[in-house]
Design goal:
Layout (H helix, E strand, L loop, with lengths): L2 H40 L4 H6 L5 H10 L6 H13 L13 H36 L4 H15 L2 H15 L24 H7 L3 H38 L2 H8 L4 H31 L1 H6 L5 H10 L3 H29 L5
Helix pairs in contact: 1-4, 1-14, 5-6, 5-9, 5-11, 5-14, 6-9, 7-9, 8-9, 9-11, 11-14, 13-14
Amino acid sequence: MSRGGEHASALRSFLKRAAQFVIVLATTLLGLVAVTFFIGRVVPIDPVIAVVGDRAPPQVYERVRKEMGLDKPLAEQFVIYVKKAATGDFGNSVLTTNPVMTDIARVFPATLELATLGTIIGTLIGIPLGVLAAVRRGSLIDQIVRLLGLVGYSVPIFWLGLMGLLLFYAKLGWVAGPGRIDVTYSYLYTPVTGIVLLDTLMQGQMDAFWDAVSHIVLPACLLGYFSLAYISRMTRSFMLNELAQEYVIAARVKGLSEFRVIWRHALRNAAVPLITVIALSYANLLEGSVLTETVFAWPGLGQYITNSLQNADMNAVLGGTIVIGTVFVLLNLVSDLLYRILDPRTR
């Protein structure tokens, strides 16, 4: 085949994969919107009453119901909702009266900041622990790492949060209490990215920065521990598989140091599936930090959805759920794409 024919074939293959990626993404997101929408319609919560109150006259109730489009058939409501959602319009929040996307843009950086720091902590500690547990399989350190993982999976994170506040905040005073930053420092910087640590650092407000660090360290460590439990267990499993491969035996026969065999060769091959594990852990923290945000009064998306659900603000609940689900789907697709790029065997 000529060089031009090879380029044309490669281009067609790339376009085919890109089209498949777009179709899978669109289908998945449409399914996510459909499930979220219909669950929101079958829950025993009347969004009209949430707006007008339970003492509104019948004529007011019917007028608002028509304005919200709830008098139309369910299929027609879904089509209208999908069209609006495609443009980022999830309606207005009953609690704040703001567009839902405006509220989400305001609270999501707090969740992103907390989940990102938790994932970094879990990755930096979980991978070395998993490697050591695999290298010293059956030893005391292996048992300790496995126990840490078991506790991280078994103990409710809200209980750990309450115990952490009781010990490190109320008793020892090592960290700041609930919230994101003390009100004393909240006016010393201008929110730009919405990520307090980054904004205060860029603007040179070091007092505000260290106060924000004191607030985030405990909830981030708790989420990091939850992430660590998953990452260390999967790292141990991947490393045990790699250490049993023939190339590891050959490397040791050649006289390579144990450090190089483990950290340069075995871990390098185990790092490919670990990318997917870390991405899934990150997605889980983004969608599963509701209890942590509630315990620590963290003004993130999880707390926003919880407060909206408690007040029957279904536009906000549906919008927040769809945003979290979309992030989860995108992280899964990106991790799958990176997996294919880093491991030619999967192409």
